Amino acid sequence: MSNIFNLDNPIWNILNKITDVIILSLLFIVTSVPVVTIGASLTALYYQMFRLSENTEGNIVRGYLKSFAENFKKATPVWIVCLIAGAFLAGDLYICIKMQMPAATFFMAVIFVIAVFYVMFVTYLFPLLSRCIADTKKIAFMAFMMSVKELPRTIFLVFITGIMIAVGLFVTAPFLAVAPGVIAFSHVFIFREIFDKYDMKVEGYHAEQ
Predict the structure, then answer these.
(1) How far is CA 90 from the centre of its chain?
(2) What is the CA radius of gyration of the chain?
(3) pLDDT tens across 109-151, in order?
(4) Maximum Cα interatomic distance, the chain, rounded to a whole number of Å
(5) Which three-class secondary structure state does DSSP give residue 157?
(6) Which residue in 121, 35, 31, 33 sits closest to 47, CA to CA?
(7) CA 165 to CA 188: how far, in whole Å?
(8) CA atoms within 13 A on the CB side of 169
(9) Contacts of 62 (CB under 8 A, 6+ apart)
């Protein structure tokens, strides 16, 4: 029975991880309220999730806020560009759906394909921002190339995101409060394999992670 109350017990470790994921998810939601800060929030979320997956998380609240502050200037413009591009694609899709023209189907298909690549690209972008200290253009290029070259894993990453959001929207709404953390924590194990494949611990990256 004494092992149950041992803090090194695997059960306590799992409960601690779950608690940390919930706390980080709530921090992400709070810091994302202004909308323009979502880029910095995503970067901070993935930064701490990588550390959590590697058991180097330290104080998760302090680490999250530190990463948020450090990446704000870099991640915010990137997020704003992504937000505008996403809004543009969504608007174009809406217009095509409303158009009563034969050509609308063709344009819809083209926009849909572009939207798929957009989602793939964004899926990698902020995890890379959290991991890399390279310039933004290089990170954006890496995000696009990895998302295409690692297509099976990319599809699985997007699938995880879709399933988690669907659970929150159609099964139990309260799950949306923890969904960001669950999605990010699920993602980082896949990203770690991908990033290790591309030697992401060489000079120029966050080796301390």
Answers:
(1) 20
(2) 19
(3) 899 999 999 999 999 999 999 988 888 999 999 999 999 999 9
(4) 73
(5) helix
(6) 31
(7) 17
(8) 6
(9) none
Kindly list the distances between the CA atom of residue 149 and the CA atoms of 130, 143, 146, 170, in Å, as whole numbers in the listed order.
20, 10, 5, 33
The answer to whether residues 36 and 30 touch, using CB atoms and an 8 Å cutoff, is no
pTM attached to this predicted model: 0.89
DSSP conformation class of 205: B
3-state secondary structure of 206: coil
**Cα–Cα distances in Å, from 203 out to 47, 71, 134, 162?**
18, 19, 10, 34
Q: How far apart are CA 22 and CA 52, in angstroms?
A: 12
At 79, list the tokens: 């997020």
Amino acid at 77: P
CA gap 79, 40 in Å, rounded: 8
The DSSP string of 110-126 is: HHHHHHHHHHHHHHHHH
Per residue in 26-38, pLDDT tens?
999 999 999 999 9
Cβ atoms 129, 74 nearer than 8 A: yes
Question: How close are the terminal C-alpha atoms of the chain, in Å?
Answer: 36
